[in-house]
Amino acid sequence: MELKRLSIWNKITKAIACLVNAMKRKTRVTASPSTLRREYQRQTGYAASSNPIFNFYYGVGRKVCASRGDLWKTMSDDEKESYRTMAKEEKRLKRLRRNVCVKA
User: Fold this and answer.
1) How far is CA 96 from the centre of its chain?
2) Taken in order 89, 90, 93, 98, is the CA torsion positive or negative?
3) 43 lies in which domain range?
4) What is the tens place of the pLDDT at every residue in 23-80?
5) pLDDT band at 81 (very low <50, low <70, confident <90, very high)
6) Domain HMG box: where (predicted)?
């Protein structure tokens, strides 16, 4: 039984030593603003905007940049409605987030 306790104790001390050594090795890394912006967009994705045309642009994609404005102009109001409801929802959520911050 004593040997088992000793082996568990050794495992615990090795784990703590690894954590301490890992903390010692950390170095400070700096990144350019463009790298930070790209990483932020990668982490969050493109969130819904309060502008319906931007929601449409994000949905269509970046590869068809030249034609998406023309495509938006030719869309009917019914086709644009989903992007407008997305924008309304984002405005509502933005207002709710702002009110939560004021109350806190």
Assistant:
1) 19
2) negative
3) 1-102
4) 555 566 667 777 777 776 766 666 677 778 777 777 776 666 667 778 888 889 999 9
5) very high
6) 69-92
Provide the number of structural domains found in the chain.
1
Q: In this structure, what are the phi and psi dihedrals at residue 103, rounded to the nearest 5 degrees?
A: -70, -30
Rg (CA), the chain: 26
Location of structure tokens 């004593």? 2
Task: Please give the structure tokens belonging to residue 20.
Answer: 């301490």
The whole-angstrom separation of Cα 101 and Cα 61 is: 33
Q: What angle do CA 23, 36, 40 make, to 5 degrees?
A: 100
Helices assigned H by DSSP within 26-64? 33-44, 52-60
For residue 28, the model assigns a pLDDT of: 64
**pTM (two decimals):** 0.41
